[in-house]
Description:
Mean pLDDT: 94
Amino acid sequence: MKLTVLVDNNTFVDQYYCGEPGLSYDIQVEDDHFLFDAGYSDVFMRNAEKMGIDWRSWRTIVISHGHADHTWGLIPLFQRYTEEAMKKKPLRKPRMLAHPDTFQSKWEKEMELGLNLTQDSLTRTFDLELTKQPLALTDRLMYLGEIPRFNDFENLEGFGNSIVEGVVQEDKVLDDTALAYRSDQGLVVITGCAHAGICNTIEQAKMICGEERILDVIGGFHLQQASTEVLQKTIHYLKQQRPRYIYAAHCTDLPAKVALAEYFDVKEVGVGLEVAFGEA
Length: 280
């Protein structure tokens, strides 16, 4: 498997890609390309083009959750497919995989947090599959489905509001999901924001994949202005997992990265990063 960072909050010096406060990864498993999240704008497509990654190669699109910094990039992708159809060059519908709550209305105060495309419009362009259940995307790449909240210290507060069955309520972001890749050396856990909690997400990956070894963890850890207690309990949990590398990205702030770096090999993440996981 090769993972390429198309969008992150950060960019690398002397690599002239664009960054934005969002997340998008190209994941290649053998000859198949998967798009994991689409960032906030068309930046992921512009960066992919510079990297030589053809947007037409994304036969499966996985959405980690419904927030704007992971889904608004679907709008320019939707437009690109529409343009191809207008040229009478319609493309085969790519599969889009997400939790059923992904496209609910989401907001915080007066700010819209969710996607402005309807499920109906997406269905016309994408083969939309909404499920809470884990799914195997390949023999080694797993979609984790809805992630149970196993512990008592993560995701204790909601994030904005949502409407569920016509009722406004605090959004617990139950649509948050992730991916796991089964390498011969252990699991590579790939997260969007980990609103479910990075520790909960790892537990779900271990349970779904039947593998206790954690090789690497990459993605957003949802550790922004985290309390000392949450950081300490997260570090304690991760110590037990003994990951080789931690690629803390996107919604992991500097104090959290510094705290993690005291105990783990924390790698820098930025647009253009390529991480390859070969088999033994």
